[in-house]
Amino acid sequence: MSGLRVYSTSVTGSRESQQSEVTRILDGKRIQYQLVDISQDNALRDEMRALAGNPKATPPQIVNGDQYCGDYELFVEAVEQNTLQEFLKLA
């Protein structure tokens, strides 16, 4: 798979605000991405965890192609440090 993907879940919970913040920031910066809802298919959850290298990883997780970018905390840190393009492996 190519392109930027944000692994998320449509099951409501504490992750919802983190997911919406990631998508809001990406939309605001006009960065194209694909939203992957892992709640629809366990294989997608397993794929997300394999890419993250963490069997307990939870959404949101961000991937560009087959390269793992990071989780919500790393995303926010990149935004604050103005290194989002590098974090997303777009630069």
Distance between the termini: 19 Å
- Fraction of residues in helices? 40-55%
Strand order of the largest sheet: 2-1-3-4
Q: Categorize the overall geometry.
A: globular
By DSSP, the count of extended strands is: 4
The class by helix and strand makeup works out as alpha+beta
Largest sheet: 4 strands, mixed
Report the portion of residues in β strands. 15-25%
- The low-confidence runs, each spanning 5 or more residues with pLDDT under 50, are none
Series of H and E elements = EHEHEEHH
* Overall pLDDT confidence: 93
Separate helix tally: 4
| Rg, nearest Å | 12 Å
Q: Can you characterise this structure?
A:
- This protein is α+β, with helices and mostly antiparallel strands.
- 42% of the residues lie in helices and 20% in strands.
- The chain has 4 helices and 4 strands.
- A 4-stranded mixed beta sheet has the order 2-1-3-4, with helices on both faces.
- Helix 1 (15-28) links the parallel strand 1 and strand 2 (34-37).
- The radius of gyration is 12 Å and the shape is globular.
- The mean pLDDT is 93.
Task: Walk me through the topology.
Elements (H helix, E strand, L loop, with lengths): L3 E5 L6 H14 L5 E4 L4 H11 L8 E4 L2 E5 H9 L3 H4 L4
Parallel strand pairs: 1-2
Antiparallel strand pairs: 1-3, 3-4
